[in-house]
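TASK: fixed-backbone design
INPUT:
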């Protein structure tokens, strides 16, 4: 073998040794991309999670007065509400409740983000007329948890919405506050709904 062939052979061997690690990295990168794609496609589509609430309802509400003050005084309200579909992945609730401590009229706007697979829930009432910071979360095994941060009496707190029994004729909702970063929670709003049959259902 002459010197030119020996030189070319050595250069070829050097390239093979140099490129092998890059081939390994490329393979790992490809495998990671496939794994991420499979994980993304495996995320459940939750855009119809709140569809069971569409329709008319009777409401019974228990509300704790003066939350996060040690108060154990609760008041109760009764009323009615309607949930309407806006589009796939969006709905709006309107409720009107009355009790010994007054009148509550409000709405909840719910919108689903198909990229993050999460819901944003916005609440507003007629006395203030401002949408609260959105509660963000999702459903898992029929249980929905949604969280937000807000300020009460000058102190930053966490808020949790908790939905259960959503696919029944008696959905259950609880709101809780935490002023210690989520270590403990105090429930201050409990709503039980009872479906009102549609006129077509009554006919049968």
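OUTPUT:
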């Amino acid at each position: 073998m002459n010197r030119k062939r020996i030189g070319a052979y050595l250069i070829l061997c050097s390239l093979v040794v140099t490129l092998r690690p890059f081939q390994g990295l490329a393979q790992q990168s490809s495998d990671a991309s496939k794994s991420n794609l499979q994980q993304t496609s495996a995320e459940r589509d939750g855009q119809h999670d709140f569809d069971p609430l569409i329709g008319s309802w009777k409401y019974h509400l228990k509300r704790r007065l003066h939350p996060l003050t040690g108060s154990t005084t609760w008041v109760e309200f009764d009323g009615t509400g309607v949930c309407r579909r806006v589009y796939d992945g969006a709905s709006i609730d309107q409720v009107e409740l009355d009790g010994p401590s007054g009148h509550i009229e409000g709405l909840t706007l719910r919108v689903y983000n198909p990229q993050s697979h999460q819901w944003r829930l916005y609440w507003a009432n007629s006395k203030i007329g401002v949408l609260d910071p959105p509660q963000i979360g999702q459903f898992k095994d029929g249980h929905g948890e949604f969280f937000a941060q807000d300020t009460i009496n000058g102190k930053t707190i966490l808020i949790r919405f908790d939905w259960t029994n959503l696919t029944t004729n008696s959905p259950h909702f609880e709101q809780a506050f935490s002023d210690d970063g989520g270590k403990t929670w105090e429930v201050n709003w409990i709503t039980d709904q009872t479906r009102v049959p549609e006129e077509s259902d009554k006919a049968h």
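COMMENT: The chain has two domains: 1-42, 51-203.
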